[in-house]
Amino acid sequence: MLFLLGSSKRQSRIRLKESISAGVEVYPFQELTAKRVELINCFGISMEDLLPAWRRYKNNFWDSLEFWVLPPAVQNFISDHSLVLSPILGLISINSPLPYAPLSWDDECNGKSLKDWWKEDLRRISKDLFKGKTVISLLGSKEEKILSFESVSKLVRFEFYKKGQKVKNPQRHRAYALRYIAEKRLPLEDFHKINFYDYQVKEIKEEEKTIRIIFEGAGAYI
Fold first, then answer.
1. Alpha-carbon gap, residue 70 to 216, rounded angstroms
2. How distant, in Å, are the alpha carbons of 53, 65, 74, 173 from that of 216?
3. Phi, psi at residue 204, to the nearest 5°?
4. What is the pLDDT of residues 84-117, one digit of tens each?
5. Are 198 and 221 spatial neighbours (Cβ–Cβ below 8 Å)?
6. How far apart are CA 199 and CA 178, in angstroms?
7. 176: enclosing H helix or E strand
8. Which residues pair with 140 in a beta bridge?
9. How far is it, in rounded angstroms, from Cα 220 to Cα 222?
10. 162: Cβ contacts below 8 Å, ≥ 6 apart
11. 3, 123, 139, 179: which is deepest, by most CB within 10 A?
12. pLDDT value at residue 23
């Protein structure tokens, strides 16, 4: 089981008492090193005062996940079963040290968007990496298009409805679903048990390799 977590243009600028500095050799997928260095130089990004991805990213998903308050066992489960997309570094782990670089996939280096910058390499890597795995995508459609899912065993997506209307920005909902899975150590066959606030699984639809987990809530909280 592998969870895919998205990036965030909104980022924290806090400085830790013990600052983290790192070279590009600390990141997974070393075959991406040359492109990482090129982007770091292109945008003049400082590799000092780094923060782990879970602390650097600040959108609704990451703020709702509240990784820093989770019990160590839950943190470890998420760390061991997830990868994170990064416009500046490509594909990283949740604990990878990130520089402050508030970039989106539409930002450009040398006339090429970061989405196009990474697409060929990340599709190649993901095709090998996802082979035979159950992949749970917590990504938006734009980030999904950077990857290849053709080799997965199962691709799981979550859909959320509030009072019958599809939730347009489900980042917080995805975070709460991930927390529930990690806290309960749910296998795929028990995903029907996921619930948070007033959201519960209403229906599960499977078509070939794709599984849609459909949640319904009254919207009393989110």
1. 25
2. 30, 20, 25, 11
3. -125, 125
4. 999 999 999 999 999 999 999 999 999 999 999 9
5. yes
6. 13
7. helix 171-184
8. none
9. 6
10. 216, 217, 218, 219
11. 3
12. 67
Phi, psi of 40 (to 5 degrees): -55, -45
At 21 the pLDDT is: 65
**Token pair for 53:** 């991805």
Beta 2-5 vs 90-92: how paired, if at all? unpaired
Task: Output the pTM of the full model.
Answer: 0.95
Q: What is the DSSP string of 62-94?
A: HHHH-GGGS-HHHHHHHHHTEEEEETTTEEE-T
Q: Which two tokens stand for residue 33?
A: 């090193």
For helices 72-80 and 171-184, the axis angle rounded to 10 degrees is 110
Locate 126 and state its tokens: 């993901």
CB contact at 8 A, 15 and 42 = no
- Judged by DSSP in three states, 128 sits in helix
